[in-house]
Amino acid sequence: MIDMLIKKIEELQNPTVVGLDPRLNLIPSHIKEEAYNLYGKTPRAAAKAFLQFNKGIIDGICDLIPAVKPQIAMYEQYGAEGIQAYIDTVEYAKGKGLIVIGDIKRSDIASTAEAYADGHIGRVKIEEESYVVYREDTITLNPYLGYDSIEPYLGHCKNYNKGLFILVKTSNPNSGEIQDLNIGGEKLYERVGKMVQQWGEAFIGARGYSSIGAVVGATHPQQAEKLRSIMTSTYFLVPGYGAQGATAEDLKGYFNKDGLGAIINSSRGIIAAYSKAPYKSLYKEEEFSLAARAAVLDMKEDLQKLF
Amino acid sequence: MIDMLIKKIEELQNPTVVGLDPRLNLIPSHIKEEAYNLYGKTPRAAAKAFLQFNKGIIDGICDLIPAVKPQIAMYEQYGAEGIQAYIDTVEYAKGKGLIVIGDIKRSDIASTAEAYADGHIGRVKIEEESYVVYREDTITLNPYLGYDSIEPYLGHCKNYNKGLFILVKTSNPNSGEIQDLNIGGEKLYERVGKMVQQWGEAFIGARGYSSIGAVVGATHPQQAEKLRSIMTSTYFLVPGYGAQGATAEDLKGYFNKDGLGAIINSSRGIIAAYSKAPYKSLYKEEEFSLAARAAVLDMKEDLQKLF
């Protein structure tokens, strides 16, 4: 999986992943109205509007970026219809050649973790039949339960050419409450980082990086530099650029000297660009797709400063 | 929420929660065959079979236990149809008077956590309309991201009379890998336990317990005794009895002197009782509901030894 991601990053000269985290107040009115007219003001309408919006965003940016990251919570809240919109979004993005990072942050063990693994990055078996359900290329996981909560996914990474990004140091203000606790001369997130590096060593591809990556928030540049030095073959998925306050300058330490090692996520900064300066005055609401494209190009230019 | 749970535990003299974690190889053939005849060997058939099976289990035991705990992974793996079976299971259980603990172990922050909170224990808003989607009474959460990943749920606990069970010390063999790390004279799980106790103090009900509970695995009786002493008003949800090897004797330290403070989960030991000794020789596969009832009564008798 990781070689596929690196190839696309290099081809496009762009280490950007766009977060598909729609919410109703970010969806242009014409899309919402169409859905409400068809389905009423219902969870079904919200789910249909999300899918329609995502298709527009994907169409606008799919030739510029290697990957998208749908956040399943936004869809799951609407029940079965929401989950279907998530699945349809994944399928649409893959049809457009994008790598899909499912931001699911699941944490469970044994047969429960196997069920998540089968559904999201493997195949579910119904007697002698088997089905691909969610179809993500890689998913995020939470490590608090230890290796038992990671191991059930590893076989699927091998067998189906998939990957993981495991939470190490998250971008939120209170991430330190648990992750920064001191354990024998190091921080908990450093220890977890070492575990992730070790778990990933059996999954290193042709370019020296592992398909088992880590989530390291853009809001912690110093900690990231430390992690970069101990997690040499681990790819970082970096949330927090843009809306959460991090800038390109903060991101230098997330990359290795080869210019690889990190993929930077922006969500609202791209998908809701049409509603924000400077794009708001340049694009109509109906042109949200073009505004997203412009925002991706600006982000690419911003990130180029790093190389 | 917690007062409602305690009232039911006392009325029924039974601190048992039954885990509704179906998997196809535990479902009686007649249910599977019916679903396959209607829908083929598809994820839809699996989801329909799960719901049918759960209804049988719930009918057999709903007058004996206070709560059930469906594990969402088992349903989520089958996509939208699976999620619908989960939602329908929650609704059916609530219709039979059971408290529902949604075992979702979500971990996310800010608007993402709000989306989970709205969907699972609140209401999702579509313009001026709002809907209840999943309808659980309480859900499990993973604390690795800190208070940011808990806080968005707390308002809903207050406004909708709901609860949480936050992972503190899990029952799996490798739970210690991260949870048992030493941080300044105590273990990480003890520190997390203190946080949960503190987060819960604003949610203490009439009986002195908080609606913000903790998950403490049955496989760690010594650690539980320590946690019991520092988490005096926190209710423990205790997985690991039965299939994972813990016995009633291991559970004494999970309870307070008032005989309250813990609810003990059994999943396969109850729902698949029909397939295991001693019930297998007493009940036909079609009588899985009666076998589950017998297993619940045996578990109740076993737990009575503690009081």
UniProtKB/TrEMBL annotation, chains A, B:
GO MF: orotidine-5'-phosphate decarboxylase activity
Keywords assigned: Decarboxylase, Lyase, Pyrimidine biosynthesis
Pfam families named among the record's database cross-references: OMPdecase (PF00215)
Orotidine 5'-phosphate decarboxylase domain span: 15-282
SUPFAM superfamilies: Ribulose-phoshate binding barrel
EC numbers, comma separated: 4.1.1.23
Catalyzed reactions per annotation: orotidine 5'-phosphate + H(+) = UMP + CO2
Pathway annotation: Pyrimidine metabolism; UMP biosynthesis via de novo pathway; UMP from orotate: step 2/2
Active site: K105 (proton donor)
CDD domains: OMP_decarboxylase_like
Membership in a protein family: Belongs to the OMP decarboxylase family. Type 2 subfamily.
Protein name: Orotidine 5'-phosphate decarboxylase
Organism, scientific name: Anaerovirgula multivorans
Gene name in the database record: pyrF
